[in-house]
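Marked as duplicate of an earlier ticket. Keeping the data here for the record.
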Amino acid sequence: MYETWKCVLGKLPEAVYRVLGIERAVTQELLASGKLKAAPTPDPRLGDFGVALQPVLKGISYAKWSIVGADLARELYALTHDECWVEKVDFVNGYLNITINYNQILKSISEEFLSGRVFKELRSIGGGEKAIVEHTSANPVHPLHVGSGRNSVIGDTFARLLEKLGFNVETRFYVNDIGRQVATLIYGVRIVESSGVEKPRDLKIDHWYGVIYALTNIIIEQGKLREAINGKIREFVEMASEICDVCSSRGSELTRETCLEICEVSWKRNYKVELLKYAGRIYKLLKSTVKPSENPAIENLVRILKELRDLLREYRSFTRAGWKLALYYPEVYSALKSSIKSYREAEEEITRLMLGAEREEPGTLQLFSKTVNEVLNGFRETLNKLGVYFNGFDYESSPEVLKTAHQVVDDLLRGGYARIIEGGAVEVNLDELAERYDYIKRLFHPDRAGRFVIRRSDGTTLYVTRDIAYSIYKFKVLGASRVYNVIAIEQTREQKQLKAVLYLLGYRREAENLDHFAYEMVHLKGLRMSGRRGLYYTIDEMLVDAELSILKKLIEKEEKRELRDLLEIAEKLAVANTRAILVSVDPGKVLVFDPGKISEVEYGVMIQYAFVRAQGVVRNLWGLEFLDSREEVVGKTIEYTRGFEGVDFTSEEKKLVDDVLRYPLVLKTAYIEKSPSKILEYALNLAIDFNKFYEKYPVISEKNENARKARVLITVLTMLILSELIDILGFPKLRRM
């Protein structure tokens, strides 16, 4: 009823103006504020919905309400009869009660859908314009987890939506194959392979490399943190000695107990383990008994202790993660631990690998290429299970990207948009440029545009520089008219910097048509994900968990069916459920998910169940399989329902007709707002409404011919729309469950 309400309420300001002379803007404001609104009538005999008119009648004598109300009813009917399918408008006790002609709506939308006109009109939105959707683009250093999986499903769903809207869509994966993370992985892989440690036969390659990457990071970070902790302990001892001298010589505002604790630190300066125990006790004493601002020395000591506590917490976090991985992969841990003697040497070697890759040294590039492509093979295996495919993989190390990146820097310097700063790096100061270019000021408003480096002092470019080059490649080489970058919301500033530089380089249209499709992270209950620590919940695990939870329910419910059939159904439903979960929340909001309760979320199952039921009606009525004979089913529906004269609709039937009516608007809204979750929400509501209808009313066995024809129409329309929605959502289609 939403669409019919919206249509009628859109005409109400005009009717009020014609009868009462109240300006249209006044009535529109009353509607916008909710003071004037539509609601279902308490009795269907009164109409389908009513509008309480008290806000516009309050200045009129109650004795005249019936006359004015009748005029309003006549005027509103005249305005809405044809366009909004209004059958009748009555004024009763301050309410306009509106009756909708659902028979007319069903006939109209049946013609639109069965003729294919509605789908053709939707395809005209894109009109063949080329759009590139770059998504996933996860660093190839560990398996895809639910965070990167959310990116994949959002991007793939949006690309599928664009295709339904008539865009010529290409999906691309941008491979960050020469960054520090990849160099760290390769550094670790060389050590492990040279030590003769082999991958377990049953472990996917991306999971194997994820272990090596995490343990390499953990060992390097532990070395850095140990050095930082020792430095902070020295600061602690020096400050404690200074405060102890004050306590001993001229007294202090500190209590004797606190002074004694601090002095003991000075006296036991050579016993590191003891010092850490004192650090915790002293920090608590100072926080609870002293206001640090009263004494700079004490304030400094509190700061040092807090920093020491934070460093220790970080160190313990890495140690716990390393211990867990070492338990399962002792040979990998031993090989890395015995080879990485100094974190400084490790980082120097990692930097050398990065420089060698960017300078296109053949041996280094070959090493990077082998490792990265093996991880990408693992990605493909996972994504193919989800039904996610790409038209192309574009590599950061490609000559096109690297050459263009250096050209970008040269063009910015030549145009006066960048400058060489102390040390030799090249910087773009967007704060200054925003004063000259209103586009940049508006782009960052209300924030300052800031400044950023686009080339290091050693001559190498940064990720943002190469991203600018890749954007030019997508427009100029791949021929995109519009580009959507599905990238985390935390990269918003970097994406604005990218657009600003494109604008400065003269790519004005490209800057306008580059769209940052921002999405928020996934928050897992009980786990803070970190690739550097090897802590994540992978898409592979999620699919297995979803399949197992569904299979258990199917076995319990379908005792007589072959296990092989149930496994096939469970596998497909697991994909539907996994995709549904990952797209269930608006991209701009954090997705909160508890893997332990995956069996409780069955969005995909519910949608598939309605689709299977609708196919069953067609199969039983005509012996046709919709998935094999869509056009024949449509033809049979047109023939079968010819001569439909109309019926009194039930509330469930009206609800489904309203659902069908909303289909074009939902797709357009999801496109404009970049919100694939609206597609899922609509599909889920349609499925729920159809299941209620299916369980309550007979379709084929309905004795009244017109009622049967109406229900067959409603069923086929629902099936057609669910089929389109399942395409967009990327679910595998089932015939039976």
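See parent ticket for discussion. The first strand starts at residue 38 and ends at 40.
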